Amino acid sequence: EIKACLFDLDGVIVDTAVYHYRAWKRLANELGFDFTEEENEKLKGISRVRSLELILEWGGVVKSEEERSELATRKNDWYVEMVSSMDPEDILPGAAEFLRKVKAAGLKTALGSASKNSGLILEKTGLLSLFDAVLDGNSVTTSKPDPEIFLKGAEALGVRPENCVVFEDAVAGIEAAKAGGMKAVGIGSAEILNKADLVVRGLFEMSVEQLDNL
Ligand code: G6P
Ligand code: MG
């Protein structure tokens, strides 16, 4: 029985996945290389620091810790600039509606995002009040696919993991949900998110009734 819904943010509630991609691509290009969209899939759900390490590896570029910190800041400045002009219209189709229906059905909701910019995005889009708990990149010490963020989310809601369903667009996020003993609904391609219990194109395809069949 599902008692709580845990949501990733980027690519599930808002379309910031494309902003992350643009900013990382710009950084890689400045360093003289590029990475593929397939490689970009591996960055979804992954922390800023870890994402940069992967990108530098793909480009065969070695940087000191100090340089890496400067590069991560540069990427984040571009990202924050794009995110700062967001408003409620940037909420993905059906996301706010589904969150409201979930709450109206008496279920709990939590955000479980690796992003340290979650607060800014929730504020810009006016979504904060739809979450009973918010766990983000500032709340955890490990990155997805470690289940830490979702387990902490379940704990904050007072719901057992087996009564939780996670909504995720990232392979690492689906893996985190399963590792935590939760149900997982993938947002995106069924081929890529093949470990999910169900895959939909967006939250506009979800109904509260469907949660019982997971
Ligand atoms: C999300 C995104 C990742 C991003 C991470 C950290 O999980 O899917 O692409 O790297 O958050 O985001 P931040 O805003 O803290 O750099
Ligand atoms: Mg995501």
From TrEMBL:
Site positions per UniProt: Important for catalytic activity and assists the phosphoryl transfer reaction to Asp8 by balancing charge and orienting the reacting groups: 113, 144
EC number: 5.4.2.6
SUPFAM superfamilies (UniProt xref): HAD-like
Binding site residues for Mg(2+): 8, 10, 168-169
Gene3D superfamilies recorded: HAD superfamily/HAD-like, Putative phosphatase, domain 2
Keywords attached to this entry: Carbohydrate metabolism, Isomerase, Magnesium, Metal-binding, Phosphoprotein
Root EC class: isomerase
Recorded superkingdom: Bacteria
Any GO MF annotation of the entry: beta-phosphoglucomutase activity
Catalytic reactions of this protein: beta-D-glucose 1-phosphate = beta-D-glucose 6-phosphate
GO terms of biological process kind: carbohydrate metabolic process
Cofactor: Mg(2+)
Active site residues of this protein: 8, 10
Chain residues that bind substrate: 8-10, 24, 43-48, 51, 75, 113-117, 144
Cofactor note: Binds 2 magnesium ions per subunit.
Family, similarity comment: Belongs to the HAD-like hydrolase superfamily. CbbY/CbbZ/Gph/YieH family.
NCBIfam families assigned to the protein according to its UniProt record, in alphabetical order: bPGM (TIGR01990), HAD-SF-IA-v3 (TIGR01509), PGMB-YQAB-SF (TIGR02009)
Designated name of the protein: Beta-phosphoglucomutase
Organism: Arcticibacter tournemirensis
Gene name of the record: pgmB
